[in-house]
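Hi all, a correction to my earlier message: I attached the wrong file for CCD92 protein. Here's the right sequence:
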Amino acid sequence: VAMETVSLEHQIQSVQRHIAFLKKEQMELLHDLHLEILRLQKHCSELTHDLEIKELEARQQDVLDRELEEKCRVREAQLQEKEKDNLELRKELRHKETLVAALRSSLRNKERRFLEELKRRSHRVTILDTELQKQTEAAAYLS
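and the right structure:
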């Protein structure tokens, strides 16, 4: 019986040592798990923060995109207006070029008629001058 008691006491001590060992292992495991939870919570917070920043940047980019699209629409409307004005100015320029061509043609015709008239008058002056000389000579001869 004493041997059984000693053996039983050894078994109890052995079980107690195993229990103590398991408790220690469990405490270390719980501690490690707690640290891992804290690390994961921190990582989750960082990811959440990063996501919030990216969402904010995305919203800001959306605002910028809309502003740029609006500016583009305004610029395109201005460009169309300028092209329309340009087209009207080209039409006006073609019209004025036509008027200038007509005026040049008219001026050339008037200049040609003036030169023809000048030639006729010059010829007439020459004829009259010749007659005057003849009459002067005849008057001189008669005197």
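Sorry for the mix-up. Residues 10 and 16 are 10 Å apart (CA to CA).
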